[in-house]
Amino acid sequence: MRKKNWLLVIGLSVSLGLLSGCGTGDKTNASSEVSKNVPPKQDEIAANFLTDIVIKEENGNILVHYTVKNISGKPKKLTFRTGLEADYIVYDASGKKIKQYSDEVMSTQVMKEMVVENNQVISKDFTIIDLPNGQYKLEVFLTADEEEAKAVKDLIIKNSFPNGKGVYIGQIDPHTIEMDIEGEKIAFQLTDTARRQLASLKEGEEVSFYFIVNEQGQKVIQKFIRTVK
User: Which residue in 65, 68, 83, 67 sits closest to 127, CA to CA?
Assistant: First the structure.
């Protein structure tokens, strides 16, 4: 009788062991399936585009060359909703936005699609003309729906335009005005930007502006800054 009891206990133990083994196998498979659905970590995702900004200061102008290279290994489609394919923002040392390219230019509202092949480079050049000396942060990016390709770089301006101030006397020709600077009448050429602003000025009004002296010795107003009340 005792032998039968022992055999019964041994049989139950083997059965439970087999059931336990099956249960463990099921859990292992389930865990493996779940792990396949876990998304990769952020640092495991390769960037699709490589960006760069080259900055050069020339005659008071800040020349910005922005490039975007497709390094994804396959063609990438970019969709632009305006004629402005790239934009930039300038921030001061405190992080305040002080200038944005798209705020100052007109662009068409025509949608455009572009396919950038693998290893193809697209570029955009900007000229910044009216920043005083100081430290800034420049952010340049694409305006495409699919990709910003943002690039950020420190911008230090040491040789900005001189800051002028005087009384606007009147217009000599479409590209030239006369200013009274501390009692001296001086002729200034105008850039296209300054010429567009001229309509808002009144003769006899005191204004301040940025200007340069070109290679011909002519004083050229780059931009009117503000009206002095």
Answer: 65
**Side chain identity, residue 160:** S
The first and second tokens of residue 214, run together, are 């070109």
Q: What is the tens place of the pLDDT at every residue in 18-39? A: 334 444 444 333 333 333 344 4
| pLDDT single digits (tens) 134-155 | 899 999 999 999 999 999 999 9
d(CA 43, CA 142): 23
- Beta strand pairing call for 151-157 and 112-116: unpaired
CB-CB contact of 179 with 168 (8 Å): yes
Cα(226)–Cα(216) distance, integer angstroms:
27
- Return the number of other C-beta atoms located less than 10 Å from residue 193's C-beta: 15
Q: Where in the chain is the domain with CATH 2.40.50.140?
A: 163-227
Q: Are 8 and 16 in contact (CB under 8 A)?
A: no
Q: Assign domain 49-157 to a CATH class.
A: mainly beta
- pLDDT above 90 covers what percent of the chain? 48
Ramachandran angles phi, psi of 15, nearest 5°: -60, -45
What is the CATH number assigned to the segment(s) 163-227? 2.40.50.140
The helix/strand/coil state of 134 is strand
**Most confidently predicted of 7-16, 30-39, 76-85:** 76-85
